[in-house]
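Dig into this one:

. . .
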Amino acid sequence: MSISLELRFLLFLNSGWLIAFFPIAWLGASYYLARQSGWQKLAIKYKFKSGIGAEPSFFTHNGVIGGVQLKGIL
């Protein structure tokens, strides 16, 4: 007697394996997408090179979105 695929899936969802499988699958998918995106290559290519004694500076802008003032966060 064989169990249908739908029944196996429902048994899996009701078991404790989903609690262990989901975070591992989520981390694996996130890692794969991060590696495929190319951000690491861009970070290596355009690495920040500070001179001796250089201070990092941040430029911000002000704006209004829907009547809410966004001071220094744009």
About this structure: The beta strands are 63-65, 68-70. The longest strand covers residues 63-65. The chain has a mean pLDDT of 81. The chain has three helices and two strands.
